[in-house]
UniProtKB/TrEMBL annotation:
Protein name: ABM domain-containing protein
InterPro entries: ABM_dom (IPR007138), Dimeric_a/b-barrel (IPR011008)
Coiled coil regions in record: none
Limits of the ABM domain: 5-66
UniProt organism field: Salinicola corii
Length: 92
């Protein structure tokens, strides 16, 4: 059963465009990972919204260990005002 995740990220206003550029690179790398079914990025107001679907927890764990994921987190975490992560459960 796939795992669905929604992430809301609020970068600092002065870092918003740069965050978007870095996130676009992360997306291009992530969508090619084994187990990544969906990795979509949207903007809503002052937030970036990630819609993710993963084959299983092992795929998420592998994604979080990727060098580019770790670099993205390290390069952006000091410029975030907030982050919310939600795991969605299917109603079916």
């Amino acid at each position: 059963m796939s795992l669905n995740i929604v992430v809301f990220i609020i970068p600092e206003a002065g870092f918003f465009k740069e965050f978007g550029r870095k996130l676009a690179i992360l997306k291009e790398l992530t969508i090619n990972e084994n187990g990544c079914e969906i990795f979509d990025v949207y903007i809503f107001e002052n937030k970036y919204v990630l819609i993710e679907r993963w084959a299983d927890q092992a795929a998420i764990d592998a994604h979080m260990r990727e060098i580019y994921t770790e670099e993205f987190i390290n390069q952006t975490k000091a410029h975030l005002e907030g982050i919310e992560v939600y795991r969605l459960e299917s109603t079916q």
